[in-house]
Write a structure and sequence with these properties.
133 residues, mainly alpha, two-stranded antiparallel ribbon, 5 helices, 2 strands, globular, UCP028777, membrane
């Protein structure tokens, strides 16, 4: 089922989103000093292509540089990208068939808001610090 959802997602939303993130990543690399955000954009682009079966978790040792970088990202691009995910998610929720894809858009909001210090892992390997092992 996950593969079917990913293929449908790829056609209706994933390809366009991944392309947008990849273009943003290229712009970040062209500006050289924004290369860490470029790396994050490419990581998110891969996640945007195939989101079902993957989860975003925070890296526990990300530290202060990631926090500062996330604040800068939030002010420059994060808010606008998140608004796009919210609008697309609401649009997908209009139809019953689109609900899983709307959920996928909402699942991408945390990583689009604060990409530095996040890691994309297979859902079965996701570890959340507030859960006991």
């Amino acid at each position: 089922m996950r593969t079917v959802l990913n293929v449908i997602w790829l056609i209706f939303s994933g390809l366009w989103m991944a392309l947008g993130y990849a273009i943003a990543g290229l712009v970040c690399f062209l500006l050289v000093i924004t290369a860490p955000w470029g790396i994050a954009c490419f990581r998110i682009a891969a996640y945007a292509l195939w989101p079902f079966g993957q989860s975003v978790v925070r890296r526990p040792g990300a530290g202060v540089p990631s926090a500062v970088g996330n604040v800068i990202w939030l002010l420059v691009a994060g808010i606008w990208i998140t608004l796009g995910h919210i609008a697309a998610g609401i649009a997908f929720f209009v139809t019953i068939i689109g609900i899983p894809f709307g959920v996928a858009h909402f699942k991408m909001i945390p990583v689009s808001l604060m990409p530095l210090g996040s890691e994309i892992v297979p859902s079965g390997r996701a570890y959340y610090p507030w859960e006991s092992r």
